[in-house]
TrEMBL record, chain A:
Organism of this sequence: Thermus arciformis
Subcellular localization(s) per the UniProt record: Cell envelope
Family: Belongs to the bacterial solute-binding protein 1 family.
Alphabetical UniProt keywords: Signal, Transport
Protein name: Carbohydrate ABC transporter substrate-binding protein, CUT1 family (TC 3.A.1.1.-)
Domain of life (superkingdom): Bacteria
Automatic annotation (TrEMBL), chain B:
Pfam families in UniProt: BPD_transp_1
Name this polypeptide is given: Carbohydrate ABC transporter membrane protein 1, CUT1 family (TC 3.A.1.1.-)
Lineage per the UniProt record: Bacteria, Thermotogati, Deinococcota, Deinococci, Thermales
Membrane topology recorded in Swiss-Prot or TrEMBL: Multi-pass membrane protein
Residues that span the membrane, as ranges: 20-44, 83-103, 115-134, 162-183, 262-288
InterPro entries: ABC_transporter_permease, MetI-like, MetI-like_sf
GO biological process: transmembrane transport
GO cellular component: plasma membrane
Length: 439, 301
């Protein structure tokens, strides 16, 4: 081996050594998420891009099952005092629980420490995850409910498209869109909405009503629910009336059962999340032109709250690891990342200036339905109703609302069914508050 | 028979100890995945804590008292009983019918045996999703069939009056293959001479079935019946995938209540108490079953 060869080998060794130490010094950040299927692929792609973009932090993403599975795995880890990740995705209604856990480093603290301007957030995603005046979570995947229209059916019934709908207008349109055969059996339903508490919550917000007291738990901790409000009552009574008339379909709690009905042209109007758009478009194919519109309201349109889920950075790790978690979060907040995520999933951007990016603009021209959610958010009033209800025991309370909806479908007046559900929900909330805050 | 043989083996000197290393892995797994979780559930059920595990305190049997005082718990227990009463007779009747069709060899019997057993081989999740499509309130085949017959469509899983029965039928369908196998074995154990003697005496097939086959099969039927009841008490997957305890809590059976209380209501200690109470019921049923098997082995010998 000549001098040259020796030098090269030495250089190679040195490089390997340096790379090795760089590898070893890379901070590992564990990330639990609940994004399955296409959404999971999009999430993994972002993680991969982040890992490739720098050499300090390595994010290890893990799919931990549904939202329900995810929060339960977290609670089990917190109970055991070990085994929780640096970053976790938790559903929208877990915001109060996450803040009460005492296990979260508020996003606001991280942002201030690192000089990130919180005003770059859109107001609604920021308001939703603000608890007791402090922003806790990053609205990672944010959605809102929209209406889906079968425009072939609309044309046939002679109903013109419009973006905003009162409940009353929607009811009339649904009646006109319904087609029955000679025996009076429904061939095409006018309306189909899955039985999900989320739609009752949103009709409340969009009509300027609160879903829980103390202004949706925004002025002070919510101590009781307020879902027996006029908007929720009217919504459930209207839906049940339309089901009895054969105008609306009752497909139960399973969203997929309603979506198949809509996609096959057997229901002319439906309501799902914006995040359902990609899937529904694929299911509909070329069967009919599809348009989307804003979620209905009772008397005057206020604005919807965001749904979806947020990312939380958890306490209990060395400073360097928490800083690594922040770098990952910071990467997700980049307009470019937000644009990719929006275009891959249909969830809307949560920071300003994304809709103006050329790739987003082009995509919106190609498929204008993707702008509905963004515009719905932009035209929503910013107040405590549209901030969304913040309360503990929300997962349990949703079950009572859904059971009430089913009671109304069976014939009980909505006022009565919701009042009975309220008693159970208030007890659950009281128990939660006593357990968590009372000590 | 197997029991008798096993008892003989135990009698030989030294053998139990040499068997231990072979049994250890099985015992270890049993300990790790069965005994320890039950003990942990027991420990949990005797404490109270918030959903994050803070403020843990010993409450003795307090959780059990609270569970037993809740009307929802008794509603669920009653629903569970109703569910078992739907599943067990149906699954036994269908299983017996299938067993009668395949217990004697004839050309192509293997095909039918496989066909009947197939329902057991289908994973619960797959079966539940397929049933969901079949029973779709509007576009499902079940309602299209009804429409073809000029009958109105039925809200199979979306009506609180119907959902539990529909789930019962699905559960019976899923278990019928296994039940048929056990009953086939039972039918094959009935001495051929007895039936031949009856035929010679001029008994009709009908009489032979009701006067000879059924009485001789009844111990097996009872045992299998108990097994079916045990299985129906722990039916979870189909309920989780099809109704989630709804509509209007009409399918909120005991085990689903446990799931709901633990993972939606975040009352883990209370759910542990509920689960242990269900465990107790299952244990009693299993004990009854073992006692009967013991008697039956004695009887056969």
């Amino acid at each position: 081996m000549g001098m040259r060869g020796f030098f090269l080998a030495k250089a190679g060794l040195l490089t390997a050594l340096l790379l090795g130490t760089a590898q070893a010094q890379r901070t590992t950040v564990e990330f639990w998420h609940s994004m399955g299927g296409v959404l999971g692929e999009a999430t993994e792609a972002l993680v991969k891009e982040f890992n490739a973009s720098q050499n300090r932090v390595q994010v290890k993403a893990q799919y931990v099952g549904s939202y329900d599975d995810g929060i339960n795995k977290l609670l089990a880890a917190l109970r055991a005092g070990r085994g929780f990740p640096h970053v976790i995705q938790v559903y929208d209604i877990g915001a109060r629980i996450m803040a009460d856990s005492g296990a979260v480093v508020p996003l606001e603290d991280l942002a201030r420490r690192n000089g990130f301007d919180l005003d770059r957030f859109l107001p609604q995603p920021r308001n939703y995850y603000t608890v007791d005046g402090k922003l806790y979570g990053l609205a990672f995947n944010s959605s809102n409910p929209i209406l889906y229209f079968n425009m072939a059916a609309f044309q046939e019934a002679g109903i013109p498209f419009k973006p905003t709908w009162s409940l009353k207008d929607l009811e009339e349109a649904a009646r006109k869109l319904t087609k029955k055969d000679a025996q009076g059996r429904t061939v095409r339903y006018g309306l189909s909405i899955p039985i999900d508490s989320w739609f009752v919550e949103q009709i409340s917000y969009n009509s300027g009503e609160y879903f829980c007291n103390n202004e949706n738990g925004r002025r002070a901790r919510a101590m009781a629910v307020a879902f027996d409000n006029p908007a929720a009552v009217a919504f459930l009574d209207t839906y049940a009336r339309l089901v009895r008339e054969g105008v609306a379909a009752n497909t139960g709690r399973n969203w997929a059962d309603s979506q198949s009905l809509f996609a096959q042209g057997q229901a002319a109007i439906a309501s799902y999340s914006t995040a359902s758009l990609t899937g529904v478009l694929r299911q509909v194919g070329n069967r009919f032109p599809l348009r989307t519109a804003y979620y209905p309201y009772l008397k005057e349109r206020n604005g919807v709250a965001i749904g979806g889920a947020a990312l939380y950075v958890l306490k209990g790790f060395p400073e360097a690891e928490t800083q690594g978690a922040w770098e990952f979060v910071r990467f997700l907040l980049e307009p470019k990342t937000q644009a990719k995520w929006h275009l891959a999933t249909g969830y809307f951007p949560v920071v300003k200036g994304v809709a103006e990016l050329p790739e987003v603009r082009q995509a919106h021209v190609r498929q204008a339905n993707y702008t509905t959610a963004i515009q719905q958010l932009a035209t929503s009033k910013v107040n405590n109703a549209s901030a969304g209800c913040l309360m503990g025991a929300f997962p349990e309370i949703r079950q009572y609302v859904q059971a009430a909806w089913e009671e109304v479908l069976k014939g009980k007046p909505a006022q009565e069914a919701l009042r009975e559900a309220k008693a159970k929900a208030d007890a659950a909330l009281e128990r939660y508050n006593r357990g968590v805050a009372g000590r | 028979m197997a029991l008798v043989l096993a008892r003989k083996g135990v009698g030989r000197k030294g053998e139990p100890w040499s068997a231990l290393p072979f049994l250890l892995p099985a015992y270890g797994l049993f300990l790790l995945f069965m005994v320890l979780p039950v003990l942990e559930a027991l420990w949990l059920s005797l404490h109270r804590e918030d959903l994050f595990g803070r403020g843990r305190e010993w409450v003795g049997l307090g959780n059990f008292q609270e569970v037993l005082a809740r009307p929802e718990f008794w509603k669920s227990a009653l629903l569970t009983l109703k569910f078992a009463l739907v599943v067990a007779p149906l699954e036994l009747a269908l299983g017996l019918l299938a067993a009668l069709l395949v217990y004697r060899p004839y050309p192509g019997v293997a095909f039918f045996r496989t066909l009947f057993f197939l329902t057991t081989a289908v994973p619960t999740a797959v079966a539940a999703v397929a049933w969901g499509w079949f029973l779709h309130p509007v576009g499902g085949w079940a309602n299209r069939l009804l429409a073809g017959l000029g009958l109105p469509p039925q809200p199979w899983l979306t009506s609180p009056d119907l959902a539990l029965y529909t789930l019962g039928v699905i559960t019976a369908w899923a278990g019928v293959g296994f039940t048929a196998i056990l009953l086939t074995a039972g039918l094959q154990n009935i001495p051929e001479e007895v039936l031949e003697a009856a035929t010679v005496d001029g008994a009709s097939p009908w009489t032979r079935f009701f006067r000879i086959t059924l009485p001789l099969l009844s111990p097996t039927l009872f045992l299998v019946g108990l097994l079916v009841v045990l299985k129906s008490l722990t039916a979870f997957g189909q309920i989780h995938l099809l109704t989630r305890g709804g509509p209007a809590e009409s399918s909120m059976v005991w085990i689903y209540r446990v799931y709901q209380d633990a993972f939606f209501n975040f009352q883990v200690p209370l759910a542990a108490a509920e689960a242990l109470l269900l465990f107790l019921v299952l244990l009693l049923l299993a004990a009854l079953q073992f006692w009967l098997i013991g008697r039956r082995v004695h009887y056969a010998a």
